Amino acid sequence: MEVIEIRPNLVADPEGRGLSDFFAAQLVCERATARRVFLAHMTAILGVPVWFCATISQLRTLREPALILFAIVAAALAVSFVTEIRCRLAVSEAEKHVRVNRVG
C-alpha cells in the first residue's frame, strides 16, 4: 500500500497557500472522479433498457426516449471524463508547490 506524505514547502511558500491550493485541487479531483464513476454506472444501467427497446417489438415506442436518455448520460460521461483530466492536471500543477513523498 502506498503511503503519501505531504508537507508544505516553507522556503518557497511561507504562508502555506500552496498546501491549501493542493488540498482544494485534490478535493475537486475526487469529486470529479466520483461523478465520472456514477455516470459510467448510469450508462451501463441505461444500456439494458436501450437493448430491450431495440430488440423487443412491443417496446419500439420507448426506443427513442430510451436512446435520448442514454445519449444524454453518455455525453455527460464524456464531459466528466474531460473534466477529471483537467482536475488531475490542476492537482499535478498544485503539487509543485508542496513536497509530496510517495513511499511504498
Secondary-structure blueprint of this entry?
Elements: E1 3-8, H1 17-55, H2 63-94, E2 98-103
Antiparallel strand pairs: 1-2
Helix pairs in contact: 1-2
Entry keywords:
2 strands, mainly alpha, 104 residues, rod-shaped, two-stranded antiparallel sheet
What does this structure look like?
With 104 residues, this protein is mainly α. 68% of the residues lie in helices and 12% in strands. The protein has two helices and two strands, in the order βααβ. The chain has helices spanning 17-55, 63-94; strands spanning 3-8, 98-103. It has a two-stranded antiparallel sheet with strand order 1-2. Helix 1 (17-55) runs antiparallel to helix 2 (63-94). The longest helix is centred in the middle third of the chain and has 39 residues, at 17-55. The model has no long low-confidence stretch (mean pLDDT 86).
Distance between the termini: 6 Å
Mean pLDDT metric:
86
Segments where pLDDT lies below 50 for 5+ residues? none
Rounded to an integer, what's the Rg over CA atoms? 21 Å
Helix-strand string: EHHE
Shape: rod-shaped
> Could you describe the largest sheet, including whether it forms a barrel?
2 strands, antiparallel
Number of helices: 2
Approximate helicity band: 55-70%
**What fraction strand?**
5-15%
Strand element count: 2
Helix and strand content put the structural class at mainly alpha
Lateral arrangement of strands in the main beta sheet: 1-2
